[in-house]
Amino acid sequence: MKVVLAYSGGLDTSAILVLLRKKYGAEVITVTVDVGQEEELKGVEEKAYKLGAVKHYTVDAKKEFVEEHVFKAIKANALYEGMYPLGTALARPLIAKKVAEIAVKEGADAVAHGCTSKGNDQIRFDVTLKAYLKPDIKILAPVRELRLTRSESIKILTENGYEVPSSHKKYSIDENMWSRSIEGGILDDPFAEPPEDAFEWTVTPEKASDEPLYMVIEFDRGVPIRVNGEKMDSVAMITYLNKVVGAHGFGRIDLIESRVVGLKSREVYEAPAALTLIEAHQDLERMVLTPKELRFKRLIDEMWSDMVYQGLWVDPMREHLDLVVDSMNRYVSGEVRLKVYKG
Ligand code: ARG
């Protein structure tokens, strides 16, 4: 059996890689899609081979992620339940598409992902994989099917002689350019303040610089093109904004989120560039759209965010909404001036 595994290099997908080989005797091809998860990418190929992959692909999808997914999200002011900029939700369909394409090319019997039965990501993966795979390629979700817990994953790895980095034990992290999500551990208690060690992209506002940061962001039909008058590459712009805005203590999110499966969950995020660009874009819309347009667009924006959150990126309805969103962004061009000060 030949299995193409969507591989992040994290705890669960690493355990699955071992499991698929040892328990099912599968030949495993790993695929890691680079959507800007900088830290997690380090050593991922080496790790895949160490764990027994027969072949590994790292696909650089950063530009496609920003230009085909993130820019649409900016135009739709996409914040799920008014707060979450959808980083994970925007990236999953792209990852699934790349994995499916490789599975078809490799003539795989199955595709595997590491999602649990509790999250939204299983839905996003399953829906998108079904849209791009051939019907005879099966979808395996070993963590869900075997009800694998994190401690069992740790056990599988240590028993097979692999070390587990200590950072894997504390939180479950999902990171890409648009947002960094931190789940689990103490964060599962919604009464507890997130500890400082949960954050990597932002400083606490108390410790941010006493000097405010002033910035001018220029949009062309809803898409950011310049920062402080300087034309910037799309990927470089997001990376830059995460860094400078995060250093001023802006970009932390702490919310009780309504998951697709019906659970409420406490979610903590860092998304300095996303929150900055969406706020700037929304302010520019307030300047140029008529009151009727603004009210209608609020409904469309919310529907767009809900659909993307629910894993319906491939639903043709999302494309229809994008046409409306693009049309309403026709005049959303100009400069927005921002001040970032201690969060
Ligand atoms: N709650 C977010 C979403 O559904 C993020 C999930 C990220 N996963 C993780 N293992 N931290 O989009």
Characterise this structure:
By secondary structure, this protein is of the alpha/beta class. Helices cover 43% and strands 20% of the residues. It has helices at 11-22, 38-41, 44-50, 62-75, 87-106, 121-132, 142-145, 150-159, 167-170, 234-246, 272-288, 291-309, 316-328, and strands spanning 2-6, 27-34, 55-60, 110-112, 138-140, 172-175, 180-183, 213-220, 223-227, 230-231, 252-258, 264-270, 334-340. Strands 3-2-1-4-5 form a five-stranded parallel β-sheet, sandwiched between helices. The chain has a four-stranded antiparallel β-sheet with strand order 6-7-12-11. The chain is globular. It starts with a strand and ends with a strand. The structure holds arginine. The site of arginine (ARG) has 10 residues, from helix 5, strand 6 and strand 7.
Helix and strand layout, with pairings?
Blueprint: E1 2-6, H1 11-22, E2 27-34, H2 38-41, H3 44-50, E3 55-60, H4 62-75, H5 87-106, E4 110-112, H6 121-132, E5 138-140, H7 142-145, H8 150-159, H9 167-170, E6 172-175, E7 180-183, E8 213-220, E9 223-227, E10 230-231, H10 234-246, E11 252-258, E12 264-270, H11 272-288, H12 291-309, H13 316-328, E13 334-340
Parallel strand pairs: 1-2, 1-4, 2-3, 4-5
Antiparallel strand pairs: 6-7, 7-12, 8-9, 8-13, 9-10, 11-12
Bound molecules: arginine.
Arginine (ARG) binds at residues 88-89, 120, 172-174, 181, 183, 257, 267.
